Amino acid sequence: MRREFIAGNWKMNTVTKEAAALAAAVVKAAEGVSHRVLIAPPYTALHAVLPVISGTNVELGAQNASCELAGAHTGEISVTMLADLGVTVVILGHSERRQIYFETDELINKKIHTVLAAGLEVIFCVGETLDEREAGRAVAVVEEQLKNGLVGVDASQLSRLTLAYEPVWAIGTGKTATPDDADEIHAAARKTVATMYNSELAENLVVQYGGSVKPDNVRELMAKPNIDGALVGGASLSADSFGPIVRFNS
Domains plus CATH for the chain? Predict the structure, then answer.
């Protein structure tokens, strides 16, 4: 039985005081919900957010991590450092990392291995650009990213990996894949995982949708059989918008 998972990616927003206040509001919104709830503040706010959410049902995530554990890597943050701050889940392969910072499937695969080896969980993002969708390649692109990103990942590790489908053209644009379109890609991704591993692991895989998720569309998205959660960007920066998303089923 898949457990639904709502995650907020704050991206490069909030200073420590703002982050602590927003985290407190998320804790209040998440009271009594049975599904997973996670927030991923910027690195600089992790230490301020941890005491606010400690002892609650809100989990602490990070937006990225290096594929290296230590050494001469100026400006990078290791998974060891993140774990030391109380992080339990790391977002990897986000389209902004792929598109703006040119992260390749190979690099993302290395990061996945590093994070999983450290005992943490991964939210692994995949998704097509508008050109790729209009060319009819959405499913093929997602399949390729999945296969490349999971090279060498053992079946026993898959329970610590959540997949997030984020069509690049829908992130921060206000555009959203229709629930049927999103569910189709989620189903295709699950089929790919079944081919790579087995049908049981594919059925148990939690697949989030990301891309302009809002209070007015979250219920329709979450009602689809292959959509198990949401990776929320802009709407996670306000308790007024993220609260209703967290409480989508209440």
Answer: 5-246 (3.20.20.70)
Distance CA 150, CA 195 (A): 12
Q: Are 126 and 189 in contact (CB under 8 A)?
A: yes
Q: Which residues neighbour 175 within 8 Å (Cβ) at sequence distance 6 or greater?
A: 169, 211, 212
What are the DSSP calls for the chain, one per residue? -PPPEEEEE--S---HHHHHHHHHHHHHHHTT--SEEEEE--GGGHHHHHHHHTTSSEEEEES---SSSSSS-TT---HHHHHHTT--EEEES-HHHHHTS---HHHHHHHHHHHHHTT-EEEEEE---HHHHHTT-HHHHHHHHHHHHTTT--GGGGGGEEEEE--GGGSSSS----HHHHHHHHHHHHHHHHHHS-HHHHHH--EEE-SS--TTTHHHHHTSTT--EEEESGGGG-HHHHHHHHTTT-
Q: How far is CA 53 from CA 28, 164, 233, in A?
A: 10, 23, 19
What's the Cα-to-Cα distance from 206 to each of 42, 140, 192, rounded to whole Å?
24, 20, 14
- For residue 79, give both structure tokens: 């998974």
pLDDT in tens, 69-128: 999 999 999 999 999 999 999 999 999 999 999 999 999 999 999 999 999 999 999 999
Confidence (pTM): 0.96
Are 243 and 26 contacting, i.e. CB atoms less than 8 angstroms apart? yes
User: Which residues are tagged catalytic?
Assistant: 94, 166
Residue carrying structure tokens 């809100």: 58
User: CA angle at residue 200 from 89 to 222, to 5 degrees?
Assistant: 60
